[in-house]
Amino acid sequence: MRKLAVVGAQWGDEGKGKVVNYFSENFEWIVRFSGGANAGHTIFVEDKKYVNHLLPSINPRSCSKGFLGAGMVIDVEQLIDELETLEADFPGISSRFYLDPEAFIVLPWHKEEDLFIEEMREVPIGTTGKGIGPSYTDKVSREGLKLYVLFDESLLKERLEALYHMKRMKYNRDFTLSFGEMTTYLNGLKTKLERLSVNFTSAVDMFRVFRSTSILFEGAQGVLLDLDFGTYPFVTSGACMAHGVSSVGFSTFELDNVYGVLKAYTTRVGSGPFPTEEFSEVGNLVRERGKEYGATTGRARRVGWLDLPALRYARIRSGLTGFVITKGDVLNGLDEVKVCVAYDVEGAVKEMPSTSYDFFKARPIYETISGWPSTDHINFLKYMTFIERETGVEIDYISYGPRTEEMKTRNDLIMNI
């Protein structure tokens, strides 16, 4: 059965939620394999907007089911809010979601800690304050709490008391909730999950099921924010590439395709290198047209021209086999569009970064392409062909609006010209 992974090919916010939602009705399972609630995946169902931060972007009107894998860090309160929002319009939908008990919990302490650390930094990273970094830090330092502790009262109290003691010693300050209050808080969340009839099932128990059915793996953020290979330290704390499917018991060799989602331009939230950032009025125009404000924080996104060296880098790092391009319509009406085709890195021309460090030194080398009045115009097809030739990856699908159904194939585009 078909296995497809969809990941961000840039710095996140490429429109993965809409793309996953579009494909989802053809897959039995939609699986989130990494990340937390620090990014929003926006979908539309009959013109109503839903923003999922943790839930896989299933189509509520289909029969597909969602699985939240062990590579995630889960803010349980946020998860319940998302489930209750969907339940209001689609009663019983919560029973179609499955949580791996091996996933880690994001605690309110982690959110406070996130802000403490950001205040302490001489150069802030631009964290969303959602507790993702501290939660992953606890995971790596063997202090974290997995979902399964919610079902063992004595273990939960023991782990929370030890964690609270360690954090108070580390920061020499109290947190809003004591370990006793945190125990009560988590017990209340567990009760709500049970009332919603959410399933707790490990990837081990799902081994045979997953291999006998179709799965759409939904990535978080983008390749350039990956902890290992993104623009470190201005990255997220988890895996953003297709290899993250290993947390659900899969190898990338088992994937039929890995689609990288890219915008027709480039955006970035927060601090960090951004070689093609555009500070002119054109940049402001694209930001407003594209509604480039974070779904999680509301922060204005930084905007720039399409970056081909970064896409070539993403292709290799995440084994991309195809592209889905979004927001070409945002550039409609521009007389010309600039594209970064190479970097000048300390005097050396590079078609692709050798390491993530090159992003910090890169100066963009541009070519100028004729603009287009609409995404059904020959010039947009030429733009896509230029991207394909320069990256070696074909663009199979085009998104031309925010709604799920506003998607077409490359052949659809050609037939409409």
TrEMBL record:
Gene Ontology molecular function, alphabetical: adenylosuccinate synthase activity; GTP binding; magnesium ion binding
Cofactor note: Binds 1 Mg(2+) ion per subunit.
Catalyzed reactions per annotation: IMP + L-aspartate + GTP = N(6)-(1,2-dicarboxyethyl)-AMP + GDP + phosphate + 2 H(+)
GO terms under cellular component: cytoplasm
Superkingdom classification of source: Bacteria
GO biological process: one example: 'de novo' AMP biosynthetic process
Active-site residues (renumbered): D13 (proton acceptor), H41 (proton donor), K139
Compartment(s) where it occurs, according to its Swiss-Prot or TrEMBL record: Cytoplasm
Keyword set includes DNA repair: no
Pathway: Purine metabolism; AMP biosynthesis via de novo pathway; AMP from IMP: step 1/2
PROSITE patterns from the UniProt entry: ADENYLOSUCCIN_SYN_1, ADENYLOSUCCIN_SYN_2
Keywords: Cytoplasm, GTP-binding, Ligase, Magnesium, Metal-binding, Nucleotide-binding, Purine biosynthesis
Binding site for GTP: 12-18, 40-42, 301, 327-329, 399-401
Enzyme nomenclature, EC number: 6.3.4.4
Key word Isomerase present: no
Chain residues that bind IMP: D13, E14, G15, K16, N38, A39, G40, H41, T128, R142, Q221, T236, R299
Family: Belongs to the adenylosuccinate synthetase family.
NCBIfam families: PRK01117.1, PRK13783.1
The protein's name in its UniProt record: Adenylosuccinate synthetase
